[in-house]
Write the structure tokens for this entry.
Amino acid sequence: MTMGKLQTAIKWAWTRITGWFTPRYRALIVESDLPDTLEKHRVYIVEESGFQERAALLCPCGCDQVLYLNLLADERPRWRVRVDSNDVATLAPSVCRKTGCESHFWLRQGKIHWCP
């Protein structure tokens, strides 16, 4: 097992144990520019002219890297974001980092679900 896979397995187990104590990820829609500093447990959705262009969030593993996700339908890869009435965010498909911490997770109803 590589170090990245071991870290992901530990994160997955830790999330299962403590998942009900962690705050939910909430969406915040911003016009054209992201703030200089991103908050934890927040998904920023960049909108221009009424179109959602991209989303950004801090990596939930704690490495503090900013993850940028394309929301434009005609570009690949592409994610979809759903925001419920309480501003709780859901992303699809999963987010899989190929470099750095190699985190792989789902964000469903504001909760991180680590992929084993």
Q: What stands out?
A: The mean pLDDT is 89.
